[in-house]
Design brief:
The strands form four sheets. Strands 2, 5, 6, 8, 13, 14, 15 and 17 form an eight-stranded antiparallel beta sheet that branches. The protein has an eight-stranded antiparallel beta sheet with strand order 3-4-7-16-9-10-11-12, with no helix packed on it. Helix content is 3%, strand content 42%. The chain is mainly beta. The two termini are 13 Å apart. The chain contains one helix and 24 strands. It has two domains: 83 residues, Immunoglobulin-like (Sandwich); 195 residues, Jelly Rolls (Sandwich), CATH 2.60.120.200.
């Protein structure tokens, strides 16, 4: 029996039915002029340095900020988490001009140039991989993804999450890497957080950045997917698991208005038809991780699936 395209649903199918956690800091980057980025929640201005430019209408959501990869950056201030239970996450949209073997900073808070000086950071490394560093106590834990299909000129949603027991990297909703980590992050008011380069201008990123969020909770994958899809989808219906057939995914017995299929990079693969009896035919898909999104007015449900 050929099982290459049999579809398996995980033990817990995803449906986003609860409100997202509120960020402690949130920079929309929708400005059209000036040298400051407004923070929606924390009231902390991001200060543009080195000459980044506003790109109205060019962002993933609306506007964005453009960085030249020389020394452009935004200084966000200390951004220490004084609330919560010691957990931490950040969410950011990035569109690189190019990917290279050099380290390219996406978001960072450091007290110096060395690896052990990173309080937290996310960088592009080895051209197509991501590296998440987090300092808890006197220990800096480093987590990297395998080389992945990251291309220039494409928007990516990048999340680093720490829940007090593990660090995780999500790329466009897909869990790319995780490792055990424990301990308190502490407070480092002398260390400014920065976007698109270290606060000194080192390890710069070339491309666009949009919608930066910092949280005092460790985001779950369900919450990451909710952030990823919030521009497309609204509230949810609780799902129920159903039968899985060869080359076919049988989900809810509902007349959904639309069906969207995303690959692991968050790109829309197709809008396949969904029939409440016969389900969705996935036989033509290449093996890999996908996200199925069903939507009707006021309702949605999402499932991560693996095609093998």
């Amino acid at each position: 029996m050929d099982l290459r395209y049999t579809v398996f649903i995980g033990i817990v199918p995803f449906a986003v039915a609860t409100a997202q956690p509120t960020p402690r800091f949130h920079w929309l980057l929708n400005e059209t002029s000036g040298t400051a980025a407004a923070d929606v929640y924390g009231g902390t201005l991001g200060l543009l340095q080195g000459g980044p430019t506003w790109a109205p209408g060019a962002g993933h959501h609306s506007g964005a900020c453009r960085f030249d990869g020389v020394d452009d950056r935004i200084i966000l201030g200390p951004c220490d988490m004084t609330t919560g239970t010691g957990e931490f996450s950040f969410s950011i949209w990035v569109k690189p001009d190019f990917v290279t073997a050099m380290d390219r900073t996406i978001l960072a808070k450091t007290i110096g140039p060395g690896a052990q000086d990173h309080i937290w950071s996310m960088t592009f490394v080895s051209a197509s991989a991501l590296r998440f560093r987090l300092r808890t106590g006197a220990v800096t834990t480093q987590l990297s993804t395998p080389p992945s299909s990251i291309f220039s000129g494409i928007w990516y949603h990048v999340v680093g999450a720490y829940d007090g027991s593990a660090m995780r990297i999500y790329l466009n909703g897909a869990l790319m890497a995780e490792t055990a980590a424990t301990g308190s992050m502490g407070y480092h008011p002398q260390a400014p957080a920065s976007v698109a380069a270290l606060s000194t201008g080192a390890a710069p990123f070339s491309g666009w950045v949009d919608d930066i969020r910092l949280y005092d909770v460790g985001l779950s994958q369900q919450e990451v997917i909710d952030i990823l899809l919030e521009e497309e989808l609204t509230t949810a219906l609780p799902p129920q698991r159903d039968a899985i057939g060869m080359n076919r995914l049988d989900l809810l017995r509902e007349n959904w208005a639309s069906t969207v299929l995303f690959d692991a990079m968050g790109r829309s693969v197709e809008r396949p038809s969904f029939h409440p009896v016969s389900g969705m035919d996935l036989s033509g898909l290449a093996p890999g991780l996908y996200l199925v999104c069903l939507q009707e007015q006021g309702h949605r449900a999402t499932w991560p699936i693996m095609v093998q």
